[in-house]
């Protein structure tokens, strides 16, 4: 390239000057950082794959760029910058036409400007609304990277491998630490060394979860939700591959189920049970065996693992447990919150305004209403309805193959996330986790589209 020589000279002079005035370790870190940025700018797909590994392994490792943000979100921004650069250099094909579901998501993003402005004016609280709004939009924008960078089956398979590798690293870190300490707070000191901020505050929050497993996702319920989203994809991918890919998928699936049980997330446990029953109704292979194995595993865990006994008992108990009473209080207070903020509270603060007596809401759909008002919730429901019309199975039984495993795995994982959303809100505005949600939705959409256009046989499960 004509620019190669002058750029090489500029960087050589720059690093030489830094080596003269800065400590050696700082220079090495800067050199690695600059090399990484240049590599991502040249190969945006590599940046997106790196995001897949990092967002599932260390989602909240942070960096300060004038304000503190996660490295995962910074990677999304860098990938979009790379797409722009490569587009200017004519190294990328024209942008594909937006699918119907993608147009609904774009409408949701545009509408969010109104609740953002209203919230900035009406909500009297400390918070950086503009930064929070831009970060939310950035997380949603991952959906539009799928047709630009993951436009081939090979690229989509590489993305799935990246997601599973990151999840495997997270599980191999979290499970041994929990088995050693038997406390959610046991992992906080490790996260501090891995770039997490506010470790002392995090440790205080996790002290109340003395018998539940945490992870780099920090909260046990968020960990359970992440497992509910990713475990179906891991199992579908692993069962239909051979060699090390099969080992990767099955390992993540089995360890993910174990981690989900140890988090004690009732919403995630119920969602996995619901989607397994749905898969059985679609006569998906292995589902019956998985249900039987799941029942056997639950029986064994109930005999040897008291924390799971308590959590499962709480699911069916009529007693007013702490988390149950909080959720009931949230639902009772929800109409007052909507009456006070009919267009939502925007992005300045999270739901549950301090000093107003208004509580948050542990529901994915109602949290959209809390933040964006009724139109925002209806737009999100329209997105989900459009997605389901595009990807839902049309034929039974579904024969799971290597060709359709990513479509089915992402679809089932998203269904599990939506069911868990009836009990928790973390797939609505939780940074990084929602980026994975919309990434999975994009994979599901475009795999379904590929299967449809490739003259699918009746067993493919995709609308002809």
From TrEMBL:
Pfam short name (any one): Wzy_C
Domain of life: Bacteria
Listed InterPro entries: O-antigen_ligase-rel_domated (IPR007016), WaaL-like (IPR051533)
Species this chain originates from: Pseudomonas lundensis
Source species taxonomy: Bacteria, Pseudomonadati, Pseudomonadota, Gammaproteobacteria, Pseudomonadales
UniProt main location, coarse: membrane
Keyword Cytoplasm: no
Keyword Secreted: no
Location(s) in or outside the cell: Membrane
Protein name (Swiss-Prot/TrEMBL): O-antigen ligase-related domain-containing protein
TM spans (from-to): 6-38, 45-62, 104-121, 159-178, 184-202, 222-240, 252-278, 290-308, 368-388, 400-420, 426-445
Domain O-antigen ligase-related: 254-381
Membrane topology: Multi-pass membrane protein
UniProt keyword terms in alphabetical order: Membrane, Transmembrane, Transmembrane helix
